[in-house]
């Protein structure tokens, strides 16, 4: 074993091992043996330490060679830390301030030293608690527009995008997780699936639904084949940390070159799930206001995304696609706007498909959401989940025949009020 | 300079330099100094030698570090030989017998020793001469279905496809040629463009055509972003060698991971151009029969492609997309057929877009086709080209509203007979 061989950090060994790293020692301050270290990882794949010292603090995130949720029976390569590091640096360059600052990266130890965000909490947790955060729609709409536009051939040099595409093409194992757990397993009785028992009849109905199974696989085809831009790859509300004043996107280890609509669809799906889960969290009083807030967040996120994407299209379209030599330089600004409309319409249609599939996998697959899981009354949870499942099916299958979020959100309200389901389908 | 440093072969140096390579010496036979060597390259990018000896023969193809057509002012990396070699081996594995056998590859010298195809001629030349080759539709339909299906996530292991995607992502310079010369330059007054002078009014009309400029760039977007399968990348009638009994696809140095529809669209476009060029080659008599033959070849090529693709879908769908666990294993064969229909419909729509753009670039851009170039009467040539240009515009812009090749071929006939153009547009 060389000095470089991977070793998982512990609260005890961390100060000694990282005290010698200048970037870490300077940021934390004081003698390493005096550092206060806590392990706070609650994810599935990694160790996360908060390190506090005399003058500062940071987070150490270290990948483990297996999926923590399942134990060492499911190995997962350490190189995902490499992809997370490279994604973070690109996201920071493309959407400054939207991700944690990175202080240090050690590839062999699969660890990243990054900014400790405090008093931030996970967005999913805030939404479950009923917090109406004022900035998330704007901040996340901007984040998506900036990273997705600037990582594509709309903006980058073709050579650089192709080199980056090749680099991230090696993130095979994490793509494989998405490919199987999101797009395939939920639609048949795969071994690791689970769902709330009361959903049995609806689950059987969905798994027998041919149009849905075809559409889910078409989304998988797009996910696997369309290497349009560097996507975050796991952009749900558990990958966002918030305060009322600040929004940060974390955990991009699933990053790869994929379709723009994937990030957008996954994020909006998680907002919709937060919406459908609210009825399960009304022990402290009605969540009607929170529901209205969430539907508004969905509309605003999409509007901000569209507006920023359009602004970038008009000012930073420096890549090889839809080049200005064909439009603006021919005095045809309208041609560029027409093309923009086509591109955004494509993102719209595909976003709905990815959103529908994301909702299904969170209720039928392996990795569930706290939004629903925290509802202790299982009959009530099943009601919330059933409405979300029906909603997901509708938007995935009908995505080409939906014109506005207003229309879809009305459907969401209808289903949430129990008016969209066949009578007696769920107890 | 090391022994490995690239040196262009000559007729004189070839026997000495390749006589020591066992695979070459064995195939050719006899003493190298007795080999008969001819340089026959008529392409733009490479040296091509035919080597004949006592017991056999072969072709040596060597890349040059610049575009031969333009001279050394346009450098082009030797590594394209590496991509050609890797594409040839994959094509042979996926469509056995469809490409020349490879005997030897030398990466540093950028040379491939391969089967000498004789008495084969270039398909484009045969079609200009009016030869009705009986096998091309079937052979090329099968070649496309087999290589495009078997190189995608419909068939390959995801890990292997992603590794291969990364390998071919480095073929930047040749992709760049296609990206600029095919999709962008023809649609504005780019410096290297040229066209038959009589076309001036029509060219101005096409370059002012907003819908066309938008659609051409949408095709470019798809070309650049959709890494669906390993495409040949330059599958026109100049990349096919034929006899009445045999069809071989050559020159895959443009190979990369792109959309299936790109190869299909480029090939059919070149058949359509062969069709529109026939009126320029009637000095030896009417080409009415040849025109009917070519339209039939187009329909048959597409039909064979569809049939073979469908057969592979039913028997070799071993990749991660549209997995049998969701369809056949749920006793839902119809679901798999429904998905197949969607995939083929997508190829259909995109194929028409790529075909339209390919026709335009061959008449308006840098690299023209002998089909038209060989027509000495420039007024007649312009008439042929004008019909093709109008046809290309129609199929590219209306590709979502066309249902059959019968319908399009009828339009091609109408335009060819001079009935589709506004009166007086062309002299």
UniProtKB/TrEMBL annotation, chains A, B:
Q: Which Gene3D superfamilies match?
A: 3.90.1200.10, Phosphorylase Kinase, domain 1
List keywords of the entry alphabetically: ATP-binding, Kinase, Nucleotide-binding, Transferase
One GO molecular-function annotation for this sequence?
Answer: S-methyl-5-thioribose kinase activity
Query: Which domain of life, per UniProt?
Result: Bacteria
Identify the residues that the record assigns to the Aminoglycoside phosphotransferase domain, covering every copy.
37-292
Instruction: List all membrane-crossing ranges.
Output: none
Q: So what EC number does this one have?
A: 2.7.1.100
Q: How does it assemble?
A: Homodimer.
PANTHER family on file: METHYLTHIORIBOSE KINASE
The record's similarity note reads: Belongs to the methylthioribose kinase family.
Q: What is this protein called in UniProt? A: S-methyl-5-thioribose kinase
Which source organism? Chelativorans intermedius
Q: Which gene encodes it?
A: mtnK
